[in-house]
Design brief:
Length: 161
């Protein structure tokens, strides 16, 4: 009789212990103690301050994929200033001014100051006449062609009155 009681207990209690153990197991594919790898943006070092370049880098990371990149950016205005200084230092003053006059802001300010930028070796009033004949060669974005056309339109309106 003891054997039957023992067998009955074993049949009734043991499966519940096994079932309870199954519900508490953790899958081997779930990892909770590890973080996602990080995409690190590269550091771009420009050691020479005589170079007109600056650096930019960025990165992005998701749970699956990471991407990082870096570039250098050339500063054209900085290059123009360095070229003009070099030309001026070598005694080429007109060439230095001509280099700066490629910037529309310098071109307009020189014109409005009454000292037009050099034009094909001409300076002063000769350059002014040459620029008026070659308006298409004025740097893009300049206010001078608009000013000239407005002056012509204004003078025509005045003559009609």
């Amino acid at each position: 009789m003891k054997f039957i009681k023992y067998l009955l207990c074993l049949v009734l209690i043991y499966p519940t212990i096994l079932m309870a153990a199954d519900t508490n197991t953790v899958s081997g594919t779930v990892v909770t103690d590890k973080s996602v790898p990080t995409a690190s943006a590269p550091s771009i070092v420009i050691n020479n301050n005589d170079v007109c370049k600056s650096a930019a880098s960025a990165s992005i990371q998701t749970q699956i994929l990471g991407f990082a990149s870096g570039i250098t950016i050339t500063d054209k205005n900085c290059e123009r200033l360095k070229l003009a200084r070099s030309l001026y230092g070598m005694g080429m003053k007109v060439a230095a001014v001509s280099t700066l006059c490629q910037d529309v802001r310098v071109f307009d300010s020189m014109w409005m100051a009454g000292t037009p930028c050099p034009f094909m070796g001409k300076i002063g009033d000769e350059a002014k006449v040459a620029w008026k004949k070659n308006l298409d060669m004025i740097p893009k974005g300049s206010l001078i062609p608009m000013i000239k056309s407005n002056i012509k339109d204004y003078s025509k309106k005045k003559e009609k009155k």
